[in-house]
Amino acid sequence: YLEKMGKDVEKISKEKFPKLHDYFNQLKNEFDHQLSKLDASNFWEILPVILGIDSKLVLLNSSIEDIQLFDFSEEEVIQNIENDYQRINQEMCGYKLGIKPHDSLIFDIK
C-alpha cells in the first residue's frame, strides 16, 4: 500500500516541495507505527486512525496538482489536508457536508 502511495507521491520532489515531502514521510511513519501496534485487542481503535492516514495520503496526492494550478503554498496544502481529511470519504460517497452519512467504517475516521 505505502509503496503504491509512494509512487503516486513521488511527484513531490524534496527540493521543490520540502515541507510536503516531510509531511508524506511523517504520514508514512505514523502509518507504519499504527500497523506495528495493531492486534486483535485494539483493532477497532486503530482502524479509524489508519483510515485517517489513508485519507490524508489521498488528499496529499490530489493536492499536488492544486499547488501547480492554483499556486497554493505547501503550508496551505497541509492545513487543508488536516482540516478536510475526516470528511473526504463522505464527500466521495456523495454526501453533502451538512448531512450525516450512514454508519460505516469508512466514515469513522480519526
Fraction in helix:
55-70%
Label the structural class.
mainly alpha
What is the N-to-C succession of helices and strands? HHHHH
Rg over C-alpha atoms, rounded to the nearest angstrom: 15 Å
Shape: flat
Total of helices = 5
Percentage beta strand: under 5%
Q: Can you describe this structure in just a few lines?
A:
The protein is built from five helices and no strands.
Report on this structure.
It is flat and about 40 Å long. It contains five helices and no strands. The chain is about 65% helix and about 0% strand. The longest helix has 28 residues, at about 45-70. Helix 2 (about 20-35) runs antiparallel to helix 3. It is mainly alpha-helical and about 110 residues long. The relative contact order is 0.14.
Detail the topology: elements first, then pairings:
Layout: H1 2-9, H2 18-37, H3 43-70, H4 74-84, H5 88-92
